[in-house]
Amino acid sequence: MGLLGRVGAGCPVGVVANAMDAAPGEVRRAGVEREFVALAGLGLAPVEVDLREWFGGEPGAVAEELARYPVVWVRGGNVFVLREALARSGADVVLTGMVRRDELVYAGYSAGPAVLGRSLRGLEGCDDPADVAVAYGDGAAVRWDGLGVLDYVVVPHVDSPGHPESEALGRVAAEYRRTGVPHRALRDGQALVVRGGVTTLHPDGAERLG
């Protein structure tokens, strides 16, 4: 059963696009719009959850917002920017708990699943940690810990001709292999589904949404 089969048509989906916070405003807005078009085209009801609205707030506030959505969709961008946004809003602790209690479906691509590993070390081979300061100011921290939901790192876009980050992420995956870092390298179009402690790789991505 894919995502639509689990939650049903018309399901509200909280779209987290904060991995794009270092991008120019018009680029970020266009990225969010693309997510909305794609998800609405599948019969879902996307709503942006901009974590910046909860920066410095009480964790309970962002928890109340995230609890509104059976699905949280975390799109790609810079994984270090995303990690900082999750931390500043308190969504890192909230989402980790909700996922482990099976209270929502965490879905997405690129930085979205990459942030779920125990560590972000090595991903600087693709994403620039300095973008955290671009997004949130010179005093912004670079966090190297992931959310720890997965015990391996998801490396997206590997062996994906035409993707601008494919070569860089191929080098990241190669370095992980060389140094023994547990990871899963995914090509564009593949979907990794984790349910009930069982991990399944769908080679064509059909089960990711359909």
Explain what this protein looks like in three dimensions.
The chain is an alpha/beta fold and 210 residues long. Helix content is 38%, strand content 16%. It is built from 9 helices and 8 strands. The strands form 3 sheets. A 4-stranded parallel beta sheet has the order 2-1-3-4. 37% of the residues are buried.
Concise overview:
This protein is of the alpha/beta class. It contains 9 helices and 8 strands.
Distance separating the two termini: 8 Å
If strands are numbered along the chain, what order do they take across the biggest sheet? 2-1-3-4
- Tell the overall outline: globular
Q: Please mark out the parts with pLDDT under 50 across 5 or more consecutive residues, or reply none.
A: 206-210
Core attributes:
38% helix; single chain; alpha/beta; disordered C terminus; four-stranded parallel sheet; 9 helices; 210 residues; globular; two-stranded parallel sheet
Explain the layout of strands and helices.
Elements: H1 3-7, E1 12-16, H2 25-41, E2 45-48, H3 59-66, E3 71-74, H4 79-89, H5 91-100, E4 105-108, H6 111-114, H7 131-136, E5 153-155, H8 166-179, E6 183-185, E7 191-195, E8 198-202, H9 206-209
Parallel strand pairs: 1-2, 1-3, 3-4, 5-6
Antiparallel strand pairs: 7-8
Helix pairs in contact: 3-5
